[in-house]
What we know:
The protein is α+β, with helices and mostly antiparallel strands. The chain is built from 10 helices and 11 strands. It is 56% helix and 15% strand.
Amino acid sequence: MKVWRPGITAKLFLAIFATCIVLLISMHWAVRLSFEHGFIDYIKRGNEQRLQMLSDALSEQYETHGNWRFLRGNDRFVFQILRSFEHDTADDKRGAPGGPPPDMPPHGWRTQFWVVDQNANVLVGPRAPIPPDGSRRSIVVNGITVGAVIASPVERLTRNTDINFDRQQRRTSWLIVGLATLLAALATFPLARGLLAPVKRLVEGTHRLAAGDFSTRVTAPGADELGRLAQDFNQLASTLERNQQMRRDFMADISHELRTPLAVLRGELEAIQDGVRKFTPESVASLQAEVGTLTKLVDDLHQLSMSDEGALAYQKEPLDLISLLEMAAGVFRERFASRGLNLSLKLPEEAVVFGDRDRLMQLFNNLLENSLRYTDAGGMLQISAEKSLHNITLAFADSAPGVSDEQLEMLCERFYRTEGSRNRASGGSGLGLAICVNIVAAHGGKLSAGHSPFGGVSIKVELPLDRDLPGAV
């Protein structure tokens, strides 16, 4: 038997609806208690006013008759006085344009009452014992207390009219609670669905993303937490899609890079095996050149993977970046001269950074090798540096040929080379700049490519200065 498990929409609906029900019932009982206590207090005030009026009337009658003989066993006399109160109230109601005052007591008594003389003998009233905690009003004549009017305390409603009125109010209150509950249910369900609509879209998008559909995107309806979560989801999906495409391109590029030297090696070996070519030192040198290409490619791949993972060993220490750069340029100066290239330096006296000597030397060698390979004969490479308060910026600007803006954006991508032939003699493996980017990032800097003022490409390397040493500005 399948057990029904409520979804998040049903749970949110039940939570909001249950909260509304609790609030409605709490408000109902609060209103009921307030009404009952207020109604009983109203009856108490009315009885106290009637007690005072009856006490004043009996005081006048006692002063007229001189004793209580006129009242003993004459309950009708008291009732006549009470009816006269009712007639006076009715006359006041007819005469006043707005009706009786709001504190005027209701007609009739809500409780039992007694009239007693000065000796506490009952003159008028039921045979029930007089409650000791009842309301009392003394009957005073010429400053002498000659009796009292006593009413039983008001603890609950006793008159049918009052009880029926209270029941009617209770039924009306429950009817209002029922209608409010229905309205809460009608309003809560679409509210719950509306609030959870972005969450459902995120859940569906996550399922598609987990299934490998990295093109999945969700709409970000607002700037609240759910909107920012949707934006982060879209950013994650874009990153995964880009990484997947990069991985596919990476595998395709590796297979392409390995296929050509392997095909050359295979062709050379088959030619020697078939006797087309003789096994001579020249053929061995050709084979060694292709093996060297493969070795360089594998070494670059290894260096790139190590730098991507952060597994390259970095032994950082304070060092003078300028002297290190001059040393690397000195090694390449003869090679530049052999190709008719001018290598010039515009560097400050010193710039102290906190870095790894071997990795920074690898960075400079890659950049110098890149310019040497791509710059046309008779051109130049200028290496300059500018120091700021916290950083030093190196610029490797060479002469023609240049690249387009589209090529410039992809210059640091893996296996990317600007010439269409992809010739390894000039293009290398296409991994040098990608390795340089990782080395610079490991030193807390950044590498960027731009157009050179000399018609070629300008590679800028920005590194932080070591602020604790004298080489820093």
